[in-house]
Design brief:
471 residues; alpha/beta; seven-stranded mixed beta sheet; 14 helices; 13 strands; globular
C-alpha cells in the first residue's frame, strides 16, 4: 500500500466508522449468527497473491460484520460496557498511526509523562488522597495479577521471585464469592494456588464480606501454620454489584499485615461523582486498587488504571533491567514497563487525555448520573409489574430481576433462561444472567456511552412483551 492508497483507505475507514456508529440503533445488539457460520466463509488456506483492498473491504462488510456483537450499541445492557467515546476513537487513530512501543521513558517520553500527569488528573477527579500513584494496565486482570504478585513478594520478604515457592510458607488470600474470576486466575498464575484463596461469606443487601468471618478465617489459618498474605475486596462486583465495606476491612488488613487490593473495575468510574463515593468509603486503606476507564468512562479498550500507594513495592516485584533497557544519563524517570507484567506498552494515556479534555469531568459525571437514575427507574417499573421480582437492588446502574408468574422454583430457573434467550434472539436489547443464592437471575446494567432514557425504557417494553409471550 503506497502513501496515496493509505490516505484513501484511511479516509474510507473513518467514513465507514462514522456511518457505522450512526446506524447502530438499526442493528440487532448481539450477533445473530450460529457457531461456525463466519469461519465457513473464510478460506481454509491463506492467499499466495496479494488481493485488492476493495475486495478485502467488501468481504469485511459482507462476511465479518454480521458476526459482530455491537458493544457500542446504545441498548447494550449486558456484562459491563466497553465504551469507546468518539473522541477516544480519534485518539486511538493517532496512536495506531504513530505505532510507538512505549515501554520506556526514552522510547517515547511524551507517553510516559502524559500517563503520569493524566492519571493524577483522574486521581483528583476520583477524590483519592494524595500519595496514590497510577499506571495504565491493559485490563483489570493484569492489574490484579500485578497486585497479587506484589502481595506474594511482600509476604515472602521479597524472596519468591528468586527462590520460588516450593519451600515457602503456604500463603492465604481472602475474598468473598462476589469478586471477579480474574482474582482466581491471578492466584493461579502467581503460584499461590486456588485452594489458598479463602472465600469469606457475605452478608446484607450489599453482599459485603462478613468481617467477623474474615477475622475468624485469618485466626484459623495462623493456627494451622498458614501465612495470611492478602485481602481482595470488591466495589461493584460483576455478578450483582457486591460491595465490601472498606471501613471494616481496612483495619483488619492493617492489624494482620495483609496487603489490601480493591477491585472497582466497573464501579470505580462512578466515583468521579462525589455523591456516589459512599460506595468506596474507606478506600484510603487500599494498598492497590483498579478501575477501568474503558468501561464506564468512555476510554476505548484497553485502558485499565491501577493506583498503588507504594509503587516501589510494585517495581521491586516486577522490574527487570537488562543493559539494553537502561536509560543512561537521565535521573528520576519512570519506566512504566517496570510497573506491569508485559514489557511492551501502547500509548494508552492519549485517549484518556483526549476524553477528559473533550468532555470534562462534569460531562462524564452527568452521563454516569443519568445511567444510575435511568436504571433505578427501570427497576421500579419492573417492580410494579405483578409477575416480576427485583432480586438485588440497584447498585449504581446494575440490578437483577426475574420473571415469576407463579411457577415452581425449579421451573422458574428454566423459564428465566428461556426468557433471556428469547430477549437476546429478538435483538433489540442485550442482557446477561448470573446466579444469586442458587437462583438464576437476569442482570441489567445501563452504561453505554450513547445510551438515552428512551433506550432504557425500551428495555422495559421488550422484557415485558417477550415475557408475556412465553405463557
Amino acid at each position: 500500500m503506497d502513501k496515496s492508497e493509505f490516505r484513501h483507505w484511511a479516509h474510507r475507514a473513518a467514513d465507514w466508522s462514522a456511518d457505522y456508529r450512526e446506524g447502530l440503533r438499526e442493528r440487532p445488539v448481539r450477533a445473530q449468527t450460529q457457531p461456525g457460520e463466519i469461519a465457513a466463509k473464510v478460506p481454509a488456506s491463506p492467499p499466495d497473491s496479494a488481493e485488492a483492498m476493495e475486495t478485502i473491504f467488501a468481504d469485511f462488510e459482507r462476511d465479518i460484520l454480521p458476526g459482530m456483537t455491537h458493544w457500542q450499541h446504545p441498548r447494550f445492557f449486558a456484562y459491563f460496557p466497553a465504551n469507546a467515546a468518539p473522541v477516544s476513537v480519534i485518539a486511538e487513530y493517532l496512536v495506531t498511526a504513530m505505532a510507538a512501543q512505549c515501554m520506556l521513558w526514552q522510547t517515547s517520553p511524551a507517553a510516559t509523562e502524559l500517563e503520569t500527569r493524566v492519571l493524577d488528573w483522574l486521581r483528583q477527579g476520583l477524590g483519592l488522597p494524595e500519595g496514590y500513584h497510577g499506571v495504565i494496565q491493559d485490563s483489570a486482570s493484569s492489574a490484579t495479577l500485578a497486585a497479587v504478585l506484589t502481595l506474594r513478594e511482600r509476604a515472602l520478604a521479597w524472596r519468591g521471585n528468586a527462590d520460588g515457592l516450593s519451600g515457602a510458607p503456604r500463603l492465604r488470600v481472602y475474598a468473598s464469592g462476589e469478586v471477579h474470576t480474574s482474582i482466581d486466575r491471578a492466584i493461579w498464575i502467581a503460584g499461590i494456588g486456588g485452594d489458598n484463596l479463602v472465600r469469606i461469606p457475605v452478608k446484607g443487601p450489599a453482599r459485603a464480606m462478613d468481617p467477623d468471618a474474615l477475622k475468624a478465617a485469618i485466626a484459623a489459618d495462623r493456627a494451622a501454620g498458614y501465612l495470611p498474605a492478602g485481602l481482595i475486596a470488591c466495589v461493584g462486583g460483576t455478578g450483582v454489584g457486591g460491595t465490601d465495606d472498606l471501613t471494616e476491612l481496612g483495619p483488619i488488613a492493617r492489624d494482620n499485615g495483609l496487603f489490601l487490593h480493591v477491585d472497582a473495575a466497573w464501579a470505580g468510574a462512578a466515583m468521579i461523582c462525589p455523591e456516589l463515593r459512599d460506595h468506596w468509603r474507606g478506600i484510603e486503606w487500599a494498598d492497590s486498587l483498579v478501575l477501568n476507564p474503558h468501561k464506564w468512562l468512555g476510554a476505548q479498550f484497553d485502558c485499565s488504571v491501577q493506583y498503588i500507594r507504594d509503587p516501589d513495592s510494585l517495581v521491586r516485584t516486577l522490574a527487570i533491567r537488562p543493559d539494553y533497557l537502561k536509560t543512561h544519563g537521565k535521573d528520576g524517570i519512570i519506566n512504566y514497563s517496570e510497573w506491569s507484567v508485559p514489557l511492551g506498552r501502547r500509548f494508552r494515556a492519549l485517549k484518556l487525555w483526549f476524553l477528559i479534555r473533550a468532555h470534562g469531568l462534569d460531562g462524564l459525571r452527568q452521563m454516569i448520573r443519568n445511567h444510575v437514575a435511568w436504571a433505578q427507574e427501570l427497576a421500579e417499573k419492573l417492580r410494579g409489574e405483578p409477575d416480576f421480582e427485583i432480586i438485588t437492588e440497584p447498585m449504581l446502574s446494575l440490578f437483577s430481576f426475574r420473571y415469576d408468574p407463579g411457577a415452581s422454583s425449579g421451573e422458574l430457573d428454566a423459564l428465566n433462561q428461556r426468557l433471556i434467550t428469547a430477549i437476546n434472539d429478538d435483538g433489540r436489547i442485550y442482557l446477561t444472567q448470573t446466579m444469586v443464592d442458587g437462583r438464576f437471575v437476569i442482570r441489567f446494567q445501563a452504561g453505554q456511552f450513547d445510551c438515552t432514557r428512551d433506550d432504557v425504557m425500551m428495555a422495559f417494553d421488550v422484557i415485558t412483551e417477550i415475557a408475556r409471550g412465553l405463557n
